[in-house]
Amino acid sequence: MREYYAQxxxxxxxxxxxxxxxxDLTQLEQRIGDVLQGHKVLEIACGTGYWTERxxxxxxxxxxxxxxxxxxxxxxxxxxxxxxxxxxxxxxFNLPPADFSACFAGFLxxxxxxxxxxxxxxxxxxxxxxxxxxxxxxxxxxxxxSTPIARTDLEGNTYQMRLQExxxxxxxxKNFPTxxxxxxxxxxxAKDIRIHRTEYFxxxxxxxx
Length: 209
Hints:
CATH superfamily: Vaccinia Virus protein VP39
Order of helices and strands: HHEHEHEEHEEEEHEE
Strand order of the largest sheet: 3-2-1-4-5-10-9
Number of strands: 10
Distance between the termini: 29 Å
Radius of gyration: 16 Å
Largest sheet: 7 strands, mixed
Shape: globular
């Protein structure tokens, strides 16, 4: 995954240019800004800073992290409110203790294997403590718009074949959970779970136990 996204860094934001998704993206941006307003945000897997740039003006402060320096280089080149946003290399599964009131991750959950999701949520709670807001956004699978699913493994994880910048093809995990699957997974780790779906995206908010 690290190598895949390092290669994709410069062209990554083309995923946000599909015409049919623009109305959903505008709605998602509004909802994210509303829910993160006034918070001290820890962003995990910030990538190129696409979402950081959009909600940062409304947040109290932002620590945007990613495990890929190529992505962070692009994110850091963007415009943010002075003194409000900091960046750091961090592994989503090995987060240091952090002072945040809300955690945000865009399009990360779908890349976490089903059998590793509980450990990820546990790490978040240990890093920031209980009663912290968690906000996740990710893709719905939409026939004709989404990359076709190539296979499903024994754990129920689904995979897509992606074309790299160098012309090679790589298999990437990409899960598309239902609302019931999300509630079942988050139930033991969080409370006040709320899920909103548009045609192309879903957004989950909850409070970590």
